[in-house]
Amino acid sequence: MRWIEAGMALGIAAAAAGLQQSPAPPAPQLPQAPPVPPSIASPPPQPVQPPRFVVVVDAAHGGSETGARLNGGALEKDITLSFSARLRSTLHAHGIDVVMIRQGDVNLPTVNRAETANEAQAAACLTIHATATGSGVHLFTSSLAPTGMVRFMPWQSAQSAFVTQSLKLESEIDSALAHAEIPVSLARASVAPMDSMMCPEVAVEIAPLVAGHVTKASPVTDASYQKSVVDALTAALEQWRSDWRQQ
Amino acid sequence: MISQVQKYLFFAMLVACVLMAAFLIRLRNHAQDRLQAQGTIAPAEMAETAVSAPRTVTLYVPNDLDDSLTAVEKQISLPGDRNAEARVILESLMEAYRAPGSTHPMNVTTGIDDVYFMAAPQGKDASGGGGELAVIDMSSALCAAQPSGIEPETLTLESMMATLHANLPAVTEVHFLVDGQPKETLAGHADLTRTYVAGENTVQGPGQ
């Protein structure tokens, strides 16, 4: 009602002003418009809260779903959880908020993982995997074709609206890992729940280091190897935060 | 009282029945002989048409170390039946997996149960004609032998799709089953519930 009354008052005032500008005939005396409450006429500017820079970290597998069995008998679910905890601590230390999807040895359905990530409205999502094959770090983005954002995205292909950003994030991580002299390979893949996530999403799969020109052989469980990967991911996410704030 | 005419008629019909039965038995024996004759000839004829002269096929062999697929040409004899042909080509790829010094080692003996073809729902082949959807029915032995991980699983699927598309270009889409049943993942990672576009190599080299 207040909006309607104010609108009527404004309309009357405008009509009065228009009539006053015309020279003839003399305008009839209109009733004085009541003063418009300032809160309605021009709402005071609210302090704009900058959106929070949140990173979602998803330690893959868990519970009965053990994932790959790595050299030495370690299970992928344990490696991903410990690595994710280490990554969270380092990101916190650099002032980056982290939402951990899996906190313990539980088997979360992929639907729940995607729901948690989407509710966080994260600026970046990382899914952590580990494998016994290959060398270095494998980065994967969704194999979906990029599309525009619509109000309701299909659940199975929600990531398609973020594929371009995911590729940019992957490029940042690739640069940081290359700077740390860790071999990197990039590929597109279809791995649940990646395609349902509504955020720039990269799956990070850590493989053992094979001895090369600049690298020495290290298993996935090696603490110094994990630390160098964590540091590279942190550097990449700090750069991503800087780019994200400028957008 | 039965009249004389009825008696003659009855015996005439009886003789006709006996003659008809003898005639039918003779016809059946002739048909049986003909089928048996065909049965003894068929295996030899089938052997001639089943396997053609050796043909060059292209196999896309994965390399776990650099995430790449390498095209390898091989001469193999292919059966005339298209489904069997696709299965033989993919089994040849499995041989490359288990070969000594393989860049994608997998100890799998029989990996492909069957391959079926049907019209792709929306695909078109390279010539603009209607594409085909290939359904690759893998064995559970392949899943058990598959090393777990996004990279090795994706490479296995990519190599099968690229190999099938290279040798049967009409195949534009591929769907995977395991022991004739849908399965969520190959070995915990690569999604098997979706239909893949064949010939769209998503695997890139290192650092690309």
Molecular structure report:
- The complex is a heterodimer of chains A (247) and B (208).
- By secondary structure, chain A is of the alpha/beta class.
- Chain A has one domain (54-246): 3-Layer(aba) Sandwich (Aminopeptidase).
- Helix content of chain A is 38%, strand content 14%.
- Chain A has a 6-stranded mixed beta sheet, sandwiched between helices.
- Chain A is globular, with a radius of gyration of 27 Å.
- The relative contact order of chain A is 0.15.
- In chain B, the strands form 2 sheets. Chain B has a 4-stranded mixed beta sheet with strand order 3-4-5-6. In chain B, strands 1-2 form a two-stranded antiparallel sheet.
- In chain B, α2 (82-98) crosses α4.
- Chain B is elongated.
- The termini of chain B are far apart.
- The relative contact order of chain B is 0.13.
- The chains are: A alpha/beta (247), B alpha+beta (208).
- Chains A and B meet through β5 of A and α4 and β7 of B.
- β5 of chain A pairs antiparallel with β7 (203-206) of chain B, so a sheet runs across the interface.
